[in-house]
Amino acid sequence: MNHKHYYVLGFALVAAMMVVAILLNPTSEFGGTDDGGGDVIEEIDPDYEPWFNSIWEPSGELTTLFFCLQTAIGSLIIGYFIGLNRGKVSQTMDKKKSA
Amino acid sequence: MEGYLSWEWCLFWATLSLPFIVYGFYSIKRIMRDDPNQKTVLALSGAFIFVLSSLKLPSVTGSSSHPTGTGFSTMFYGVGITAVLSVIVLLFQALLLAHGGLTTLGANVFSMGIAGPLVAYAVFRVMRKAKVPTSVTVFITVVLTDFITYVVTSVQLALAYGTFNESLISFLSVFAITQIPLAIVEGILFTIFIDYLERARPDITTRIFPKKEVAGVEP
User: Fold this and answer.
1) Per residue of chain B (219 residues), what is the pLDDT tens digit?
2) Chain A interface includes B14 (CB < 8 A)
3) Interface test mutation site (partner A, options B86, B153, B161, max chain A beta carbons within 10 A)
4) CATH code of the domain covering residue B31
């Protein structure tokens, strides 16, 4: 096996873990642990009232948009870097060929 | 978790985080001045935190949580710079997504940008000294940055609510258990990326993973 096979294996493993998580909890809504933490606080101290509220809270659709935006910004930078390397490698290969 | 920590705790964690952030800020300035080539790696460090902390991944416990993405930055730059990058991402999420929170920013920076990276970086250094293979080092370091972050979150909440021991168990069972598979996922992804980086850009990785005598580098 060369390194590319290991990469495929790694990605497959990641995908498998997600699938297993979903298969084990077929009816779960996969609520965030942050909300889960809030529930625990309510159990420990039922009288607690958050003393500060978000100055602005986006609707569900907007939340999705901003999360996507965050992912996109990061992916763009990583993709740019990988593409740049790819270009550099093929450039040096071309030079070797023509030399 | 806006408003879920009393203002005394908010102030405490913010004060504790501040020196790391200031130190990290000056480290970034110094790097930009002395070694502009590092800009790419710095940008990548931030990019990974952006991507991975935006993803809410399902876990075997039936809830979902965010990876942290701080492993890459931790290996290359240690704690200070990771703290600064975390502030940027956490501000983005607090302002645009009502996620994490402004009042709790100090506490979140401490768990994600300081405590997790600090523990992981220490272990990373030990493993480098002991000449542990690169892929193993990367995997363990990244898993620790992620996992310790959520352990510390649990400790922070347990300190603020109820009797410490009992609360800690409750919070750990929510945060830490869910996080284990996600930390492993993150570990696998970064192990692949660092391996790719070693092949494509050895000039970048030699700084943290000095090459053994290489005979004929593979293109």
Assistant:
1) 788 899 999 999 999 999 999 999 999 999 999 998 899 999 999 999 999 999 999 999 999 999 999 999 999 999 999 999 999 999 999 999 988 899 999 999 999 999 999 999 999 999 999 999 999 999 999 999 999 999 999 999 999 999 999 999 999 999 999 999 999 999 999 999 999 999 999 999 998 998 765 555 554
2) no
3) B161
4) 1.10.1760.20
Of the candidates A30, A40, A43, which has its C-beta nearest B58's C-beta?
A30
The answer to whether the beta carbons of residues B49 and B69 sit under 8 Å apart is yes
CA distance A16 to chain B (A): 10
| Cβ pair B99:A48 closer than 8 A | no
Q: Pick from A17, A18, A40: which is nearest to B170 by CB?
A: A40
**Contacts of residue B37, Cβ cutoff 8 Å, sequence gap at least 6:** none
Torsion over CA: B174, B176, B182, B186 (sign): positive
> From the CB of residue B195, how many other CB atoms can be counted at a distance below 10 Å?
18
Work out how many domains chain B is built from and give that number.
1
Q: Which residue of B has its CA nearest to A15?
A: B185
Q: What is the ipTM of this complex?
A: 0.91
Query: Cβ(B188)–Cβ(A14) under 8 Å?
Result: yes
Q: CA-to-CA distance for B116 and B102, rounded, in angstroms?
A: 20
Q: Which domain holds residue B11?
A: 7-204
Asked whether residue B2 is domain-assigned, the answer is: no
